[in-house]
Amino acid sequence: MNKLKAFRSVDFDWTRQLKSVWRDPPYHLPSLHQAQLDDLVDYFENKTRDPDPDNEPLGRAIVAPAGYGKTHLIGELRRRVWEMNGWFILLDFIGIKDFWSSVALGFLNSLQVRMGNGDTQYDRLIREIGSQLGVHREMMAIAERCRGQPNALMKELVGLFTRSLARKYPNETIQHRDVVTALVLLISEDLDCHSIAHAWLQGMNLDPELVRPLGFLRENSPVEVVQGLSWIMSLVGPSLIAVDQIDAIVSASNSLARATSGAKHEQDQARSIVEALAQGLMDLHEKKRRAVTVVSCLEATWKVLQETATVAVTHRFLAPANLRALPEREAARDLVAARLHQAYTACGFEPPYPTWPFTGAAFESAVGFSPRELLIACEAHRQRCVAEGHVTECNSFAVAEQKPEPGKSEIRGLDQIYDA
Hints:
This protein has helices at 3-8, 34-47, 70-83, 99-111, 121-133, 136-145, 150-168, 170-175, 177-185, 191-200, 208-211, 222-234, 247-259, 264-287, 299-307, 329-347, 360-364, 371-388, 408-418, and strands spanning 60-63, 87-91, 239-243, 291-297, 321-322. It is mostly helical. Strands 2-3-4-1-5 form a five-stranded parallel β-sheet, with helices on both faces.
């Protein structure tokens, strides 16, 4: 295999989209933020062991500048939580106009994600609830009796699940009966029935004449859906609720204030965005069940929530875990070696040494880099080699200019809004 062709095939992409947290990466880096990962997993395991806790565990926060591996850490948390038979819920906030609708949609979308065995989290939830209630034999009898009658099948299955839950959890079943109904109806092969259940689990209010024949009894709301789903999931296992997209919301409030040169109305509107987010996170702590909320954000974003919101949202979270730059040459070497190994193995190339063409001296110079900065430097060297038509060894990643201290410019930019 031609050396240049092999090196050209290496992917040093330094971005990771939020949806990628659902997939195990082709390379695992135990040295990247391992201490913080282990601490979060231990906390989750210890604080959610009790299936019916008196108090919900406080949330955790992961803060770091952009490019320090926050999304990678969230993906590793998902993998570890699934290994512990827990639930993983990912909340993606595009805006803050309706906090609870976004949360309900996050729960629903997360339940429909497929796990490693091909089942969705929803499949597992229905299967394990049925097992706990001991209704599998009755389910099979109903399926046989109602073959070819989808409406009758769903009606009997809803009745079976609600009756069985009510025998063990009468108060909770009365409170969350409509959520139980929607969860069961979601398995229907009838498109209309499935669509109604899907809409209900987003917190939508539907025409009573349409939904009453299916067993729905009350008006709906997203917060009640989230509360009901969290309770039902807690019967099977603990949940980790990951919040990884709040920087854009705080940034939007920043832009709103700046766009109008600090007019009071827009300043108030900018503050209201942050207040709504803070209030929503605090309310989520009160509504969840046997769950830990983990917020991942920039240091500047957490500072805004901590210092400017009137609701004490940070009182519902422990002190944040700060992700640091690459602390030692081994961490930098492992990060790059994982990318090289994947590409070289795929094309059958045997390099002179595992990190070729990056020498040991190069990784000495990478201490203090963020993971993103290191991958950008690697890509720059790859492009130079491609342009020159041959591969040269890289002995240093050092840059001439001094890198600014991470996060300071972000914090100053946000502070200017709230100092008024």
